[in-house]
Amino acid sequence: xxxxxxAVSVGRTATDEAxxxxxxxxxxxxxxxxxxxxxxxxxxxxxxxxRGAPYCRDVGLGLLFDVVPRNLKSACxxxxxxxxxxxxxxxxxxxxxxxxxxxxxxxxxxxxxxxxEKRYYDPAFHxxxxxxxxxxxxxxxNELPTLTAGLGxxxxxxxxxxxxxxxxxxxxxxxxxxxxxxMEMVGDKCVIWAVQPGSDAWKQGLRPGDEVLKVxxxxxxxxxxxxxxxxxEVVAPLAEYHFVVASPGQSARQxxxxxxxxVFPQELRGFTGGDTLHQMLRLYKGYRILGKSxxxxxxxxxxxxxxxxxxxxxxxxxxxxxxxxxxxxxILDLRNNSGGREEALRWMVANFxxxxxxxxxxxxxxxxEPLRMPSRGKGAFAGKLIVLVNAQSASAAEVFPKVVxxxxxxxxxxxxxxxxxxxxxxxxxEQGGTAIFDYWVEVxxxxxxxxxxxxxxxxxxxxxxxxxxxxxDMAAGRDPVLAAALQLAGITLSxxxxxxxxxxxxxxx
Length: 509
Description:
The protein has helices at 36-45, 72-75, 99-119, 130-143, 147-159, 200-203, 225-235, 274-290, 314-324, 342-350, 396-406, 471-476, 480-488, 495-498, and strands at 22-23, 167-169, 175-178, 181-186, 189-195, 211-215, 240-246, 253-258, 260-263, 294-299, 302-306, 329-333, 339-340, 357-364, 367-373, 384-389, 411-414, 423-432, 436-449, 465-466. It is built from 14 helices and 20 strands. Strand 4 (181-186) and strand 5 (189-195) form a beta hairpin. The two termini are 29 Å apart. With 509 residues, it is α+β, with helices and mostly antiparallel strands.
C-alpha cells in the first residue's frame, strides 16, 4: 500500500517522499508509469527525477534502480558498487578484513534498527526481542571481512521479525543476474514453472514441472519459500545455482545452472554514458512489457484479463473494465501477481462493486483505521466474475479476491495465496560523502485485518475451489485452472489449449 516517509541519511537531511506498494517480501515492485525515459534524461541533464520514478528490482535480477525519488545529490550521483553478488555466499575462503567496510555495515545496521523501532506498527514487535537480534547481528558483522557480507547480516537481523512487509533492501549493483528459470509453490511442493529456452538452465536439463527438493542449502516449502527467494535473489543473487530436482515420475538428480550476467560500467555520473543509458532504457522497456496486462476476448460471453501486478493508473483500469463490460463474464487472472499500489487496488474495487466497500482495517500505532473504498457506481462491471489465484498471489492480489468472497461477488479458483498482506513504507538510507551508496528498509506500518476479522498475513486466502496443476501438467504446458474457469464461463477449452493463451514472458535487456 502506498504511503510516504522521510528519508533518513548520513551527512544530510531530506524530506523526500517514499512510495511503496502493497506487495510481499522479496517481490519488489515496478512502480513505473510510462515516464521512465523522461526521468532518465532529466536526471542526465541535472534535474531530480519526478515523483513515481520506477523501482526496478524483480526477483532474480541483481540490478536495483532508485526505489524512490530523492534529491539531486543522491539521485544523480556516482553508483558505488558495494556488492559482488556473483559469489554463492557472502564469504567463501579467507578474505582480509576491511575495517572501513565493517564500520559501514555497522552504521547501516544501526540506521535500519532505528527506523524499525520508530515506525514498525507494533512497538512491542509482537513479542520478538529486536534488540537481542540486532546485537547478535552486530557481533556477526565484527567477524565478517567485507561490506557485502556485513549487509547480509543486516538483512538477517531484519528477517527475524518474520514479517512479509519488513525487509532490508541492499544497495544498487552494477550487474544484472538473469537466472533463466522461475520456481513457485504449488500446493505443498516447490516446482519449476518456467525455464527460458536457450538459457544455461535449459541446456543443463532443468524443465517446467521439476520439483525443487533443494536449492543451494535450502529445502523450500510453504513456510520457507519467501525467505529463500529473498536470500538468494535479493540479498545475494548468484552466478550459478545448485539444485536437487526431480522430474515427474523420475528420481532426484543434481544440477548446476549458470545465470546470465550483464555488467554496467562501475562509474555512472547521472547516467552520462550513452551506451549505459540505452541499456537502462531497454531494461525499463522490458519491465514495462512484463508488467503489462494481457487480455483475451473469447466472444461476447467472455473476456480473460491477466493482471501481473497492481500498477495500473485509474484511467487504464477503467479502460480494461469498460472492455470487460461488453462481455457476460470476466476471468481475472491474479496468479503470480505480487501486489502493487494501494491506489490501483482502490480502483479495482471501485470497478467491480456497485456500492462502497470497507475492504478491511489497518491496525497501527495510532489505532485502527478502516480502509474504505468508493464504488464507481453504474460504471462498475456487473457481470459474472471469476478470479484465479495461486501461492504467488500476494498482498493486493490477496485482498481483492478475499473481498470478492466476503461480498459474494464472484468465485475464486486456484491455490492458497501467499499470506503476505500489510501496509508498508520504504525509507531510503544512505552513507558517504563524495561517493554515496544508498539502501532502503521496508517497514510494516499497519497490519491488515479483513472485514470478517481474519488476518491473511502468514495464512493467505483459501480459494472457493482448489485446483492445482500437477507436475505433469506443468511439464506439458497445460493449464487446468484456466480451463476450469473457462468451463464455468460456458467455454470448453482443453488444458493444453488454455496453457497456450498467455505464453511465459521473459525480461529482455
